[in-house]
């Protein structure tokens, strides 16, 4: 199996970081075009990226404000059953350590390699939003 892991710090309180990972409004700021979701263990999330990419996931880890995880239930074949999540911990005054992961890939294929890059780009947008209030239109997120 192949995994994607990114670790970094964000100059923002852990609760604010958690909201961007775990709420539909938060996800829409940096990853999805439009999402919906039930904030509870086994809750269902809708992750909309466009007409051909209307994905679904189940909450498999919900520990506010330190851990959140989604297991993909309707997605690109390479993503099916994979888990996307984060572990967060405070690192001093308004700084949060983030361990982001996307685990369970069957192999290091082309889609895995593209996703490694895309996650780094999306996580940069998340960080810039939290630290500087920047917002990027969905259609431009992989261009910035």
User: Major sheet, described briefly?
Assistant: 7 strands, antiparallel
| Strand order of the biggest β-sheet | 1-7-6-5-4-3-2
Quote the beta fraction: 35-45%
Quaternary structure annotation: single chain
Number of strands: 7
Tell me what the structure shows.
With 144 residues, the chain is α+β, with helices and mostly antiparallel strands. 27% of the residues lie in helices and 38% in strands. Helix 1 (14-22) packs across helix 2. The protein starts with a strand and ends in a 12-residue tail after the last helix.
Give me some keywords for this one.
single chain; 144 residues; alpha+beta; 7 strands; 38% strand; globular
Short description:
With 144 residues, this protein is α+β, with helices and mostly antiparallel strands. It contains three helices and seven strands.
Write the layout of secondary structure elements.
Elements: E1 2-10, H1 14-22, H2 24-30, E2 34-37, E3 44-48, E4 54-63, E5 67-74, E6 83-90, E7 96-105, H3 110-132
Antiparallel strand pairs: 1-7, 2-3, 3-4, 4-5, 5-6, 6-7
Helix pairs in contact: 1-2
